[in-house]
Design goal:
This protein is an all-alpha fold. It has 5 helices and 2 strands. A hairpin with a 2-residue loop joins strand 1 and strand 2. It is elongated, with a radius of gyration of 18 Å. It starts with 10 loop residues before the first helix and ends with a helix.
Length: 156
């Protein structure tokens, strides 16, 4: 038996993968946001839905902002790639950094706002939490892509 070397993916292939991961992560974050908002409308504490508590509304508003930031960076990366822009690697590095940061924030808030049930197999919250954690590490973590972004930015 001969052993063949595993090919190393090209930077362009990794950028394509980052865009695909960004789309998956955005979908997971949107599901987490939607399910959290719905849950806080139905879960009652002190005789009223917990979604009426201002502190929880602020946390969900912050989740919304992270989802929209990710969406904007995903659109930017897709447009740059579609145009064949030399800015594509920069846009993909920025997307990967945001994917990691926003994915962690949104998933942690969803788990917290769902309470103990958030990590059980009864809800998809725990699954999305774990998937977002995995996506944040694939093809380089947040620190790697932040360094990549800064290096690319310095050459412009």
């Amino acid at each position: 038996l001969t052993r063949r070397a595993t090919p190393t993916p090209t930077p362009a292939a990794i950028d394509h993968a980052i865009i695909a991961m960004g789309a998956e992560a955005l979908g997971a974050m949107q599901v987490l946001l939607d399910s959290t908002v719905e849950y806080t409308r139905t879960r009652e504490q002190f005789g009223q839905p917990i979604g009426k508590f201002q502190a929880l509304q602020h946390r969900m508003a912050d989740m919304y902002l992270k989802v929209e930031e990710t969406r904007s960076l995903l659109y930017n990366a897709v447009i740059r790639m579609d145009e064949g822009s030399p800015e594509t690697p920069l846009a993909c590095a920025a997307l990967k950094v945001k994917l990691a940061e926003a994915g962690k924030f949104v998933s942690q808030q969803a788990v917290q706002l769902h309470g103990g049930i958030g990590m059980t197999n009864e809800l998809a919250v725990g699954h999305h939490f774990k998937r977002l954690l995995l996506l944040s590490k694939l093809y380089g973590d947040e620190d790697y892509h932040l360094q990549r972004y800064m290096a690319l930015r310095a050459t412009r």
